[in-house]
Input
Amino acid sequence: MLFMKKLLFVIALCLSALSGLQAQTVHRYDAKLDGRIPVTIALQQTNGSVVAGYIYYPRAKTPAPIMVIGSVMQYPDNEASYFLSEYQSDGSITGTISIQLEKGKLHGTWTNPKTQKTMALAGVSVSRQTPEWFTESLLVPEDASNIGREYSYEQWSPKYNENMGGTISFRAAGKNKVHFECMNAFNNIAEGSSEEGRPAVLDGNVFEYYEVNECHYAFRATFFRRFVVLESISGGESTRCFGMNASFDGVYVKVKQ
Output
């Protein structure tokens, strides 16, 4: 009986490990920009719509994988649409990528946010072969004790003709608790902070915070190893205390540990 219990325990561990590996499957897309510049995009996906990975330009002067983070909309027959941003380590966005996967073929565009120059992106091959430079999964849930002090992003805004973005900072407030202060100014200004005596409480790598302001704004923060995803969870009317079309929503890259 003891042997069977140990055997079942080992099997459970193996199944758990396999499940984790399956959830972190790398989807690799080898493609060309403008029909001539080779690129490789390697992505992983959460159980939801968040995707993250790297884009790699093998002909760059000093080739190195660049972080890409975004979302995916999936359709029947393994078809999907990806919407990605290319992030540098300081949170600046140097490219936006729109990809459609249809009948096993990849096509889309890469756009320079500042010049608005767009290049066509067409796939050469689709596989699950992990590139040798893919050495770190970006979708590892962050432990509550390792949340950074500051996360930010910055992207060129043609409307304002300057770099715009957002910043959210955190300070510890007890076990699995943090205070936050957020300012997001890409579309318009949205800002707010936790109340003293009412910190955000983490459940794993996620917290939800309600009643940010008198308009009853609420948002969810989901932490991963190198970034946090902020998304509104209250109705559209809750943003009326901010500027028009403003919210906390976005992907913020860890810039201060």
Remarks:
- Residues 1-23 have pLDDT under 50 and may be disordered.
- The helical segments are 2-23.
- The chain is about 10% helix and 45% strand.
